[in-house]
Amino acid sequence: MRKNSIKNTRINTEVQRELANLIRSEIKDPRVGPMTCVTDVEVAPDLKTCKVWISTLGDEAEREDTLKGLKSAEGFLRKELAHNLNLRNTPELKFIPDTSAEYGMNMNRLIDEYVGDGRR
What share of residues in the chain are helix, strand, coil (percent, to 5)? Predict the structure, then answer.
């Protein structure tokens, strides 16, 4: 199975949907922020590993706490993925912070400042 095959794309979408539902409704860890979002998932073609990009609102400390909480719940999440999805292997999850939303907000702020200075 190639990395960009239709099957791999479908698996990525299903894993992302399931993880988002599990994090939102099943994780009771207080370290995991209520505004935690699964922005992207990349399952390896051999279904052994999975990179999960997580976006969280808040400062750096809240982001680190959320990642620690998700890391501690990795076994539970894998068990639930295996139960809910019919995959040959249940991938190991690796959580990666996604800072693209913060980068975009920072760029918008810089553009607004530049445009504001140009009008004066």
Answer: 55, 20, 30
Statement: residue 21 has pLDDT above 90: yes
Instruction: Supply the CATH number for residue 67's domain.
Output: 3.30.300.20
The whole-number average pLDDT for the span 27-54 is 92
Residue 79 lies in a domain: yes
Does any domain span residue 31? yes
Q: Tell me the two tokens of residue 10.
A: 């479908």
pLDDT score at 2: 63
- Is the residue at 1 inside a domain? no
Residue 84 is predicted with a pLDDT of: 92
Note the pTM of the prediction, 2 decimals.
0.81
48 touches 89 (CB < 8 A): yes
**Adjacency order of strands within the sheet including 92-97:** 36-43, 49-56, 92-97
Q: Decide if 39 contacts 98 (C-beta within 8 A).
A: yes
Instruction: Note down the domain range covering 48.
Output: 6-119
